[in-house]
Amino acid sequence: MSTQLADSEDQHGHHHGSPFIQHHYDNAQHQFDSGKLGIWAFLAQEILFFSALFVAYMLYRAYHPEIFAYAHKYLDTTMGAINTGVLIVSSLTAAWAVRCAQKNQQTGLKLCLLVTILCSFGFLGIKYIEYSHKFHVGTLWGAKFQPHEAPDGSPLAPEGKETAKPGPPAAGHGTTGAPGGAAAAAHTAGQTASGNTPPLGTAGSPGGAVPGSDRVKTDAAGHGHAASGPPPPNTGMFFTIYFAMTGLHGIHVLVGAIIFIWLLIRAMKGHFTPEYYGPIDYAALYWHLVDLIWIYLFPLLYLIH
Amino acid sequence: VAHHGHEKHGHGGHEEHGLAHIASVKTLLGTWGILMVLTVVTVLATKVDLGSSMNLVVAMVIATIKATLVALYFMHLRYDRLFHTVVFASGLLGLMLFAGVVMLDRGEYEPEIIWDAENPPEP
Q1: A234 touches A67 (CB < 8 A)
Q2: Does A188 contact chain B (CB < 8 Å)?
Q3: Contact A299/B46, CB-based, under 8 Å?
């Protein structure tokens, strides 16, 4: 540490500098660099944290492309795109907040932090609208996937009641050929018999014995399913993955919002100077990573062709 | 370490004062603008039928361009220490190893794990 900056910090750092420079660091630069390495190590860990969900997504999509080709139509691309824009704007203001702190522009710093906070709540608000819509129509995770409507909004009879009615072909449940058993049994038999074969929506052909290879091919290409047809089996898995990924991401957004509120309070107290703005920089880096993960989540979940 | 001297005096026309590189307003707004444009592009690209796998490739390439821009300019990696890039890349390497090995191995598992009594799996 024999450079000009280090020397000047050694001489003046503790007297005229920020009171937030801790004494166990040589100088402001040392403290800043230590924190910066720490946050980068944390971000690398965050990638590994999310990687489990991304791998789950990849594996399940490789096994069951038809589920993704169908289920993504339940998602509102406009909402997703708006949220992408909101996050990118907040990334801009977070990066700008760092610049303001570096240049000692206190008003700009507070303004940038405020806009970042507003954007993070905007994102969460839109996510709340999306989530509540999914609770409303029943497109939830796993066995809780009991949609009342197809992606295009056309009504879809609940599975349980299907058996009571004598095979309404309009509803699309192809259980007409199934021998007397409950629809649920035919359902299970159908999906286990040939892996990807959708047992539903094949009215007219004997349920459970559908040679599904053609259907699966078209599904894999993403053109097989009309948005009005019934979902392929295990479509709930898409929403399991959807809620796990967007949920974990949403928690990160919420944590980010809380951190930026804390930073705004500190900024209003005038804590941040060109000599001490580490927390702003680290929070911004974290925020950019949250944005970066969403940059991948958006096309993977909303933009399936 | 000589590194601090470098940061103090700077070079290459970038603003270099104090503790780290300062991104110019032009860089910030330019990066933001490209990211917004690419968001629109990736939405529009989905509407074009390129075949399901090609559409996925295009979407992922656009996402990766966006992610790289965020990392280089918003996260300052282009002007930051190389070691921070190495740390970050190590996380990505972990992801690639994890994903790569799992995807290579996926043929080794039963694709359907729901038990069917009438159609038991072959012994």
Answers
A1: yes
A2: yes
A3: yes
The burial of A85, by beta-carbon neighbours within 10 Å (0-12 exposed, 13-18 middle, 19 or more buried), is given as: middle
Q: Count of alpha carbons within 13 Å of A66, Cβ hemisphere only? A: 23
* Helices A236-268, A106-137: inter-axial angle, 10-degree rounding: 160
Instruction: Tell me, yes or no, if the pTM score tops 0.90.
Output: no
pLDDT beyond 50 at A210: no
**Closest Cβ opposite residue B19 in set A1, A32, A221:** A32
Question: Inter-chain contact A274–B18, Cβ cutoff 8 Å?
Answer: yes
Q: For the residues A200-213, what does the mean pLDDT come to? A: 37
A161 CA: distance to closest CA in chain B (Å): 23
What mean pLDDT is predicted for residues B82-87? Answer: 96
Give the whole-number percent of chain A exceeding pLDDT 70: 71
CA distance linking residue A155 with residue A146, whole number of Å = 12
Name which residue leads in pLDDT, B48 or A208. B48
Instruction: Answer yes or no: is pLDDT of B6 > 70.
Output: no
User: What ipTM was reported for this prediction?
Assistant: 0.81
The token duo for A153 is 């909004």
Contacts of A58 in chain B (CB under 8 A): 99, 102-103
CB contact under 8 A, B99 and A55: yes
